[in-house]
Design a protein that fits this description.
This protein has 757 residues and is of the alpha+beta class. The protein has 23 helices and 26 strands. The strands form 5 sheets. The chain has an 8-stranded mixed barrel, surrounded by 5 helices. The longest helix is centred in the first third of the chain and has 68 residues. It is rod-shaped. Bound molecules: ligand C2E and magnesium ion (MG) (2 copies). The site of ligand C2E has 24 residues, from strand 19, helix 14, helix 15 and strand 23.
C-alpha cells in the first residue's frame, strides 16, 4: 500500500503540543519572575520597616534619656541634704533643672501625701494632687521599683492628649518615702513623631509598654491609647526578643502586616512598625496584572496560531491523502488501481525471487458486463462493480491483494501461491459470483453475473509482472472463449496461438488494403431448380500462408475490429457484381451478404447500405443481409435494433443465419424484423443419420412456418436431404448438391447453363 512519511510535518497534533509547551514554559517563567518580584517587594519592605523601627527607637531613646537626666538633676537637688543651701534655694535649683525639658513636658515633685511641691511650669505653689496616680501609688508602696513608666492618663491641666509619666521615688537620708519625682510626657510628641514617618496607606506605628498597653498608635484613634494588646497575635512575639520582624494579622484592625519591632533602649517600651501587606504588594500587584495580561494574550495568540497552523496542516494532509488515494486507488470501488497493483506486484515478485517461491496473478473479467451497462444504465453498472469488488475483496485473504485495472477487469495477486492455492482462490471467486447481485434497492433488480478468470504463476508463466499480467489475460480470454464463467490456467501454447493470431491479423489487414481478397458466390436454389439468389462468401488466399478458411479469419477480423471494413468491402463487391451480372443478362434475383453485430453498431450502416444499392442501381429488395443469432443477443441491443428497423423499413431482407445452433429464442425472432431463416448445415447433414437431428430439424422448420418466415436450408449435399426438407416444407436450398461457392465468372456460367437447362 502507499506509505506515508512519518515526521513532525505529518502530525498536526504535534504543533498543538509544541504550542502548549511554549505556552506552559513562558507562563512558568513569568510566574517564577513574578514570584521573585513578590519576594523582592517583601524584602524591600522588611528593610524599610527595620530601618524605620531603628530610627524611631533612636529618636525615642534620646528623648527619654534627656528626660531621665533632667529628672535625675531634680532628684539630686531635692534629695541631697546640704547644710549650706536653704530649702528655697534647693527648690529653685530643682526648678531650673526641670526647666530644661519644658519643650517635652512637665517635671513635678510631690510630698509624701501626693501634693505637688514642685512644678517645672511655675514657681507658684501648686494645688495639684497626684496621690491617686498609679506612679505615686507604686512608689509609695514599693521602695525598689526604680524608674517607673505610668499608664497613659489625661493630664489634670486641660489637654487633648494623653500623657505618660516616668517616675522615681524620693527618699530621705534614711531611705524613707519622701514623695515622687515624675516627668510627664505628652503623647502628642509621639503622635507628631509618627506622623512624620513614611508608612504607606495602611501602615501602622505603635508604641507599646512592655506589658502590652498601647501608648500611641498611628493611625491615631483616641480610644486606642491605653488599650492592651496582651491578647493579640503580634504582641506576644515582640516580648521574646529585643527586636524582630514578622508577618501577622493585627488584632487592632484585622489587617495583615509586616511588623518590625524594637525595644527602646533600657526602657520598658517597644516601638512597632507595621507595613500593610496590601501596601507592600500594591506595586507588585499592578505590575503582575500587567505582565500576566500580556502573557495571557501572548499565550492565547500562540495557541491560536498553533490551532490555525495545525488546522491548515490537517487540511493539507487531508488533501494529500485524497490525492494519494486518487493516484493509487480506484474511486468507484476503493480498490487499488492499475498503478498500485503494478507496484505491489513488482514488490511481491522481488520477494518471490529472493525466496525462490511462487506467486500467482489472477485476471478476473466480468462476463457480458457491457450489456448490463447498456441495458440498465451506468448507475446500475457502477453498483454492480462495487458489489463485485466487495465480493472479490472477501475472497482475498491476508497479504494478498485485489485491484481494479479499469472497466470490468480485476486482478488478484496472491503471495506464496502454487497451482492448488490459485485454483482454490479462483474457485472461491466463481462461487462468490453465483449469488445474483441485488441492485437499486428500491427497484429490486437482481442481476446474475459470471466471471472468467485467467491464472498465471511466477516463475513458470513469466518472470516479469508485465508478462504475467499479459499471460493471465490470455488465459482469461481462453476461459471466455470456452464458454465463460470459468477459470483457465495459462499454457505456453496460448502464446504460440496468440502470435499466429497476430500474424494473421496483420496479413489480413494488408490483404484488405491491397484488395487481395476475393468473393465467391453460392447459389440459393428453389424448387424446380429456379435460382433464388446467391450468397457472397469472402475468400482469402495468401501467397505465404496459403488459403485461409473464412471461419478462421472472419473470427480474427471480428476480434480485431477489421470486420466492418471487410464486410463493407464484400457488400460493395457483391452489389457491383450483381449489377454487372444483370448488365450482361445473367438474371440473379437477389444477393445475400453476411454481416455481424459490429456492422449494425455503425450509426451510418443503414445509410451506407442504401447508398451502395443506389450507386449500383439496385433496389433494397435485391439484397438480403445474413446475421447469426448472436447479433440479437449482443450487448448493444438498442443500437442494433434501430439499424435493423431502418434496414427493414428500406425493404432490405434480414435473414437469420445458422439458425438452431444458438439461442433459437422465439421471442427474439418475434421482436426483430426478420424475414428469412437459414437452417444450419449441421442439421441438414444429420438428415438420414440421426432421428433426433431430423426431429430437431423439423422443429426448427416449424418455428419458421409459425413466424411466416421463408426457410432456406444450408449445406444440402444429397437428394435425400433435399427431399426430406422438401417434404417438411422447406423450399429453398443451398449446398454442394447444386454448386459450391464459385468465382464470379464461374457463377455466371453456372447460371447460364441452369437457365438453358
Ligand atoms: P455461412 O454464412 O453459413 O456460409 C455457408 C457456409 O457453408 C460457407 O462456408 C459455404 O462454403 C459452406 N457450404 C455451402 N454448401 C455446403 C455444403 O453442401 N456442404 C458443406 N459442408 N458446406 C457448405 P464458408 O464459405 O467457409 O464460410 C464460413 C462462414 O464464414 C459463413 O457461414 C459466414 O458465416 C462467414 N462468412 C463468409 N463470408 C463472409 C463475409 O463476407 N462476411 C462475414 N461477416 N462473414 C462471412
Ligand atoms: Mg451466410
Ligand atoms: Mg450458415
Amino acid at each position: 500500500m502507499a506509505r506515508t512519511r512519518i515526521s513532525f510535518l505529518t502530525k498536526p497534533a504535534l504543533f498543538l503540543l509544541a504550542g502548549l509547551c511554549i505556552t506552559v514554559a513562558t507562563t512558568g517563567v513569568v510566574a517564577v519572575a513574578l514570584y521573585q518580584m513578590r519576594l523582592d517587594a517583601m524584602a524591600q519592605a522588611r528593610d524599610m520597616a527595620e530601618n524605620l523601627a531603628i530610627s524611631l527607637e533612636k529618636e525615642t531613646e534620646r528623648t527619654l534619656d534627656i528626660y531621665q537626666i533632667a529628672m535625675r538633676n531634680v532628684l539630686t537637688n531635692l534629695e541631697t541634704p546640704s547644710p549650706e543651701l536653704a530649702p528655697e534655694t534647693r527648690q529653685l535649683l530643682a526648678f531650673n533643672a526641670a526647666g530644661t525639658i519644658s519643650d517635652l513636658g512637665v517635671i513635678i515633685a510631690t510630698d509624701t501625701s501626693g501634693k505637688v511641691v514642685l512644678d517645672s511650669r511655675s514657681m507658684q505653689p501648686s494645688t495639684i494632687d497626684v496621690s491617686r496616680r498609679d506612679y505615686f501609688l507604686v512608689h509609695q508602696q514599693s521602695p525598689d521599683v526604680g524608674l517607673y513608666f505610668s499608664k497613659p492618663f489625661m493630664p489634670i491641666t486641660k489637654s487633648d492628649y494623653h500623657s505618660i509619666a516616668m517616675s522615681r521615688r524620693l527618699a530621705d537620708a534614711n531611705g524613707r518615702f519622701e514623695g515622687v519625682v515624675a516627668g510627664t510626657l505628652s503623647l502628642r510628641y509621639f503622635r507628631h513623631l509618627f506622623e512624620d514617618s513614611i508608612l504607606g496607606d495602611h501602615g501602622s506605628l505603635t508604641l507599646i509598654r512592655t506589658d502590652g498597653i498601647i501608648l500611641m498608635r498611628r493611625p491615631f484613634k483616641p480610644g486606642d491609647i491605653g488599650r492592651s494588646l496582651a491578647d493579640g497575635k503580634a504582641y506576644p512575639l515582640m516580648t521574646r526578643a529585643d527586636h524582630g520582624t514578622f508577618v501577622r494579622r493585627s488584632s487592632m484592625d484585622n489587617k495583615d502586616r509586616l511588623f518590625s519591632f524594637k525595644r527602646i533602649g533600657r526602657y520598658p517600651m517597644i516601638i512597632a512598625v507595621g507595613l500593610s501587606v496590601q501596601d507592600i504588594y500594591a506595586g507588585w500587584r499592578k505590575r503582575a496584572i500587567a505582565i500576566g495580561a500580556v502573557t495571557a494574550v501572548l499565550d492565547v495568540l500562540i495557541i491560536m496560531l498553533c490551532l490555525m497552523f495545525s488546522a491548515q496542516l490537517q487540511r493539507r494532509l487531508a488533501m494529500e491523502r485524497q490525492l494519494q488515494k486518487l493516484a493509487w486507488f480506484d474511486t468507484l470501488t476503493s480498490l487499488p488501481n492499475r498503478r498500485l497493483v503494478n507496484r505491489e506486484a513488482r514488490g511481491i515478485l522481488a520477494d518471490a525471487r529472493r525466496q525462490s517461491s511462487q506467486f500467482a496473478i489472477l485476471f478476473v473479467d466480468l462476463d457480458r458486463f457491457k450489456r448490463i451497462n447498456d441495458t440498465q444504465g451506468h448507475a446500475i453498472g457502477d453498483e454492480v462493480l462495487s458489489e463485485v469488488a466487495q465480493r472479490l475483496r472477501r475472497c482475498i485473504q491476508g497479504e494478498d491483494m485485489i485491484g481494479r485495472l479499469g472497466g470490468d477487469e480485476f486482478v488478484a495477486v496472491l503471495r506464496q501461491c502454487d497451482v492448488h492455492k490459485a485454483a482454490h482462490v479462483a474457485d472461491r471467486i466463481l462461487q462468490a459470483m453465483q449469488q445474483p447481485i441485488a441492485v437499486n434497492a428500491g427497484r429490486d433488480v437482481s442481476i446474475a453475473l459470471g466471471v472468467s478468470i485467467g491464472i498465471a504463476l511466477y516463475p513458470h508463466d513469466g518472470r516479469s509482472v508485465d508478462t504475467l499480467l499479459r499471460n493471465a489475460d490470455m488465459a482469461m480470454y481462453r476461459a471466455k472463449n470456452a464458454g465463460r464463467n470459468q477459470m483457465h490456467f495459462y499454457a505456453a501454447e496460448y502464446e504460440y496461438e496468440a502470435k499466429e493470431h497476430l500474424e494473421l491479423e496483420i496479413a489480413l489487414q494488408q490483404a484488405l488494403r491491397e484488395g487481395a481478397l476475393q468473393v465467391a458466390y453460392q447459389p440459393k436454389v428453389g424448387a424446380w431448380g429456379i435460382l433464388h439468389g446467391a450468397e457472397a462468401l469472402v475468400r482469402w488466399h495468401d501467397q505465404k500462408l496459403g488459403t485461409i478458411a473464412p471461419d478462421r479469419f472472419v473470427a480474427i477480423a471480428e476480434e480485431s475490429g477489421l470486420i466492418t471494413e471487410l464486410d463493407t468491402w464484400v457488400l460493395e463487391q457483391a452489389c457491383s457484381q450483381l449489377a454487372a451480372w444483370r448488365a450482361v443478362g445473367v438474371d440473379v434475383p437477389n444477393i445475400s451478404v453476411n454481416v455481424c453485430a459490429a456492422d449494425f453498431k455503425r450509426a451510418d450502416f443503414a445509410d451506407f447500405v442504401a447508398r451502395t444499392l443506389q450507386t449500383h442501381g439496385l433496389r433494397p429488395s435485391d439484397l438480403t443481409l445474413e446475421m447469426t443469432e448472436r447479433v440479437m443477443f449482443d450487448e448493444s441491443t438498442d443500437d442494433i435494433r434501430a439499424t435493423l428497423e431502418a434496414l427493414h423499413a428500406q425493404g432490405v431482407t434480414l435473414s437469420i443465419d445458422d439458425f438452431g445452433t444458438g439461442y433459437s429464442s422465439l421471442s427474439y425472432l418475434q421482436r426483430f424484423p426478420v424475414r428469412e431463416l437459414k437452417i444450419d448445415k449441421s442439421f441438414v447433414m444429420s438428415i438420414g443419420t440421426s432421428a433426433m437431428a431430423e426431429s430437431l430439424t423439423q422443429t426448427v422448420m416449424n418455428i419458421g412456418h409459425a413466424l411466416k418466415l421463408s426457410i432456406v436450408a444450408e449445406g444440402v449435399e444429397t437428394v435425400a436431404q433435399r427431399d426430406f426438407l422438401s417434404r417438411h416444407g422447406c423450399r429453398i436450398y443451398q449446398g454442394y448438391l447444386y454448386s459450391p461457392p464459385l468465382a464470379p465468372q464461374d457463377f455466371a456460367q453456372w447460371a447460364k447453363a441452369r437457365g438453358r437447362a
